[in-house]
Design brief:
This protein is of the alpha/beta class. The protein has 16 helices and 16 strands. β12, α10 and β13 form a beta-alpha-beta unit. The longest helix has 24 residues. Pfam families: EAL, Response_reg.
């Protein structure tokens, strides 16, 4: 932390005064001032009055409910970071983290008791005066007319997340990710604007992504690089009968490049039968269907039965904690075994630590992707990655 800057402020909600005192000492070492609250209603009042950069809170304190406190923080539009002191089963803490994220809170990975200074330092590595308060949660940054102009001006572009084959250790495919090259705000990630799209704009975006991705795939093939191309489709897309003709036309124009349509597993479809029909027609055409974020939704096995699935993508929340949580490791291994038994590819998402590559291969995952191997990149950089040394071979981390 920058010693010349004013210290950050943390509000601590904890019913054990000894644990709170120990945490205050550790935070002071890291240059963070603390104010201690023992009751939830005091915390919310202090947050509204002082606007701290950090709230540290336990999940279980007396007869009060930590989940309810997260909801109250979201209701008062708290824009700082939240760190949970779990003190409970890891599974319960992770549910609370995900709930906080769903409520719009900026959640840090929870910290087990007793707290260790090194882990606390790692969690708070970006905290300090330079940390912006951020916009109020729930307030859209852009209006629908701005998005309409973005389509007209062709400001929505693609970057590609590389995917690697664990058997060959080479680049095997890319996933198309949309970006908004905003003339004033710069390059915007999907989370900044996708939630604002109308249904009609969503369908227009699918067409735009398909056209751009197919054009890039055609250029790669002309250069002698044949990559699998993945793109996300929504339940609305899959329920639209014209998706079949649209994809067929784009696919043939790109010379039949391997195309994988990814369906987010946590998404719901009101008409499973119609969605299955569209997916089946795409499959009969020679295209592939993948289930993205596998394991975090409610209908995983039903989807495998209803849809002609060629690929499962293990959610990054399991892969990222592979070495920390035996339950996460067991889930990844089980999904990989399921994939082998069904004869389909299993892609591990969110690979950041190359040390996880060996167990992923041992479990039976066939492909990997993540920032630890390569970050999303413009189409112009994909050829250089394909022709250069593979991050897997260079790291020597597999095998």
């Amino acid at each position: 932390m920058n010693a010349s800057s004013s210290p950050a402020l943390a509000m601590v909600l904890e019913d054990d005064p000894d644990a709170a005192a120990a945490l205050a000492v550790q935070l002071r070492v890291l240059g963070v001032e603390t104010r201690y609250c023992r009751h939830a209603h005091h915390l919310v009042g202090e947050v509204l009055a002082r606007r701290p950069q950090l709230v540290v809170m336990g999940l279980a304190f007396g007869d009060q409910d930590g989940i309810a406190v997260l909801r109250r923080l979201a209701e008062c539009r708290y824009a700082g970071k939240v760190l949970l002191l779990s003190g409970v089963e890891r599974k319960v803490a992770r549910i609370a983290e995900r709930l906080g994220e769903a409520l719009g809170l900026d959640m840090l990975a929870s910290l087990d008791k007793p707290m260790r200074l090194a882990e606390l330092r790692q969690r708070l590595s970006g905290l300090g005066q330079a940390l912006p308060a951020g916009p109020e949660k729930g307030r859209p940054l852009f209006q629908h007319d701005e998005l309409e102009r973005a389509f007209e001006r062709q400001e929505l572009i693609l970057h590609y997340q590389p995917q690697f084959d664990l058997a060959t250790r080479r680049l095997s495919g890319v996933e198309a990710l949309v970006r908004w090259a905003h003339p004033e705000a710069g390059m915007l990630a999907p989370g900044d604007f996708l939630p604002l799209l109308t249904s009609a704009q969503g369908r227009l975006l699918t067409r735009r992504v398909l056209q751009l991705a197919m054009a890039d795939a055609a250029r790669w093939r002309e250069a002698g690089v044949n990559l699998s191309l993945s793109m996300n489709v929504t339940p609305d897309d899959l329920l639209c009968p014209e998706l079949v003709s649209l994809v067929r036309a784009g696919w043939h124009s790109a010379g039949g490049a391997p195309l994988v349509l990814e369906i987010t597993e946590s998404s719901s479809m009101e008409d499973e039968l119609l969605g299955s029909e569209v997916a089946t027609r795409l499959h009969l055409t020679g295209l592939e269907v993948s289930v993205d974020d596998f394991g975090v939704g409610f209908s995983s096995l039903a989807r495998l039965q209803l849809l002609p699935i060629s690929e499962l993508k293990v959610d990054r929340s399991f892969v990222s904690r592979l070495h920390e949580d035996v339950q996460d490791a067991a889930i990844v291994e089980a999904v990989a075994l399921l994939g082998r038994r069904l004869g389909i590819r299993v892609v591990a998402e969110g690979v950041e630590d190359l040390a996880c590559l060996a167990p992923l291969e041992r479990f039976g995952c066939t492909h990997v992707q993540g920032f630890g191997l390569a970050r999303p990149m413009p189409a112009s950089e994909v050829l250089a990655l394909a022709e250069g040394p593979s991050p897997l071979a260079r790291a020597g981390a597999v095998g």
